[in-house]
Amino acid sequence: MDKVRIGVIGAGNIGNTHVRLFTNGECPDFTLTAICDIVVKKAENLRSKALENLNKRGINDQQIEVFEDAVALMDSGLVDAVTVATPHYMHPVYVIEALRRGIHVVSEKPAGVYTAKVREMNEEAAKHPDVVFAVMFNQRTDCVYRKIKEVLDSGELGQIKRTNWIITNWYRPQRYYDSGSWRATWSGEGGGVLLNQCPHNLDLWQWLCGMPCKVDAHLHYGKWHDIEVEDDVTAYVEYPNGATGVFVTTTGDAPGTNRLEIDCDGGKIVCESGKVTLYKNKIPESEFRNNAPSSFASPEYTVSVLETDGQNPQHAGVFRAFSDAVLRGGKLVANGVEGINALMISNAMHLSSWLGRPVTLPIDEKLFYDELMKRVATSRRKETFNDEVSDTSSSYGGVK
């Protein structure tokens, strides 16, 4: 195989991004061969845009087929791989269908809406080790987060003591939520800022700092917008080593803030405004506290702004790594099975809010599902996408 024949499932906003990358030359290892959407007109319009991009590059003979049925696309023999760019509930459904057919697959974030279904997806992936499965955590390609990961993994700052992330620059006006009937509904999207905007941040948080073991979250539903899901979140977490953390997010602050602070025994890292600042203690705090020369002494430290490689390829970087893995056995930006971690945190935040108490991780997945379905049953968007809620499998089943 010289190139990966790729199909895009879902012709919405993010599907448009995928198609653009496959046809404008940024991801040269791919040949776009198919587009699918349950609204065929959307897929046809996206095909027209794709062909225009290819024509601009002097490629005039590329055939791109349109499908209404995602499984029919997978069974067509036209693709070696697919991207799943549908609404959230269908991500694991279509990933599983691809895995069972030996088709390499990239899932958009989040991995799903609830961990029980994502766990089923990961179990299926384990049965097909030769199939490449990735998740679109494109923020891992950002040079600032890669630099933080490098420093933390080196051990030079010692054990993490505290993490704080204020990520409130996800501002969205009401018009955004009104742009689709599925948006910001329990039955259509399965959550708000935690399921739509913050899967990236939750993934980075756990990728850098590890998974918490306890979550106490306070969520406000429709606080700033006419929506039924959360648009304002403040969560406190505890880690197995005794460290603590706070995560604050909203789509209602303007101007917003994006500040990540990770305090360690040997100093701290602060990431804000695209800059990584390292505060490094000359003596670790744990050593200094018992040997301080005076009652009000504190460790001396140095401050430096860390240099990065300046690279931030985002979606294109994830796709280039994916094709490299398929064609040459290269390393993925994020293996698909890792998607459950960020979802576990957001599920825990929702469950803590619904129950009005802290919850431990891993969460009680059946309890979460039951609580979610109570909200789906009263959702303003009554219909679901081509799937039915299955009482026996506790998952959204069926594919069109």
Question: Your description of this structure?
Answer:
It is built from 12 helices and 17 strands. Residues 384-400 have low confidence and may be disordered. Helices cover 33% and strands 23% of the residues. The radius of gyration is 22 Å and the shape is globular. It is α/β, with parallel strands linked by helices and 400 residues long. Strand 8 (214-221) and strand 9 (230-238) form a beta hairpin. The chain has 2 domains: 4-139 and 314-336, NAD(P)-binding Rossmann-like Domain (Rossmann fold), CATH 3.40.50; 143-305, Dihydrodipicolinate Reductase, domain 2, CATH 3.30.360. The strands form 3 sheets. It has a 9-stranded mixed beta sheet. Helix 6 (143-154) packs parallel to helix 8 and helix 8 (199-209) packs across helix 11. The chain has helices spanning 13-23, 40-56, 70-74, 91-100, 115-126, 143-154, 174-177, 199-209, 285-288, 314-328, 339-355, 365-377, and strands spanning 4-9, 30-36, 65-67, 81-84, 104-107, 133-135, 160-167, 214-221, 230-238, 244-250, 258-264, 267-272, 275-281, 301-305, 359-360, 388-390, 395-397.
Question: What's a concise summary of this model?
Answer:
With 400 residues, this protein is α/β, with parallel strands linked by helices. The chain contains 12 helices and 17 strands.
- What's the CATH superfamily of the largest domain, by name? Dihydrodipicolinate Reductase, domain 2
Q: From the alpha-carbon coordinates, what is the Rg to the nearest angstrom?
A: 22 Å
Name the poorly predicted regions.
Answer: 384-400
In order across it, which strands form the biggest sheet?
14-13-12-11-7-10-9-8-15
- Largest beta-sheet characterization: 9 strands, mixed
Query: Could you tell me the strand content as a percent range?
Result: 15-25%
Give the quaternary arrangement of the chains. Answer: single chain
Number of domains: 2
CATH topology of the largest domain: Dihydrodipicolinate Reductase, domain 2
Percent helix, as a range, is 25-40%
Q: What's the shape?
A: globular
Query: How many helix segments?
Result: 12
Order of helices and strands: EHEHEHEHEHEHEHHEEEEEEHEHHEHEE
The level-1 CATH class of the largest domain: Alpha Beta
Global mean pLDDT: 94
CATH architecture of the largest domain: 2-Layer Sandwich
